[in-house]
Amino acid sequence: MSDSRNLDDLVSPGDVLMLTTTSPELAARPVTSAVVEDGLLRFLVSSGTAWVEPLTRTHDTSPSPVGLTLVERGSYLTLTGYAVAEQDAELAARLWAPAAKAFFTGPDDPDIRVLTVEVLRGEWWDTPATGVGRLVALATALVTDDESKAGSSGPVDAT
Asked: How far is residue 71's CA from residue 92's CA, in Å, rounded to a whole number?
């Protein structure tokens, strides 16, 4: 019922996650993951968007708290961590994928920032993928008084 799962088994390059930031106010937007490695999620983002600026590290700022969510046909994931957006041409070139061409002229576009999220904790949930399946699982859990019949969940191991 509460098995831990590794972050890199739950998020893959190309997954679209909802990123919630707190500055200047609580707001969420979709971002596409570029890579998952060593408890870090990395995204290519545009310095020209207002929400990226508060995440840009300067000499006197620390990483900003963020939340991430992922929903895929009966699977749910929520993560919390700290984010920093930095200009790093070498890392941007390594993370470049053809889909990024929709937003940038190329991997050397001066507008690209690499958003790195250090994941501190998270939780996942799995339920049957279809609406009918979820209803049947919920009914079974209610009748048998066994909540494990409705699905499974557990913590995320970000290391």
From this structure: 26
Sequence-distant (≥ 6) Cβ neighbours of residue 35 within 8 angstroms: 13, 41, 42, 95
Output the pLDDT for position 136: 45
Backbone dihedral angles phi then psi of residue 126, each to the nearest 5 degrees: -125, 135
| pTM of the full structure | 0.81
DSSP designation for 140: H
We find that the CATH architecture of domain 5-157 is Roll (2.30)
DSSP conformation class of 52: T
CA dihedral 68, 72, 75, 80 (to 10 degrees): 0
pLDDT in tens, 34-49: 899 888 999 999 999 9
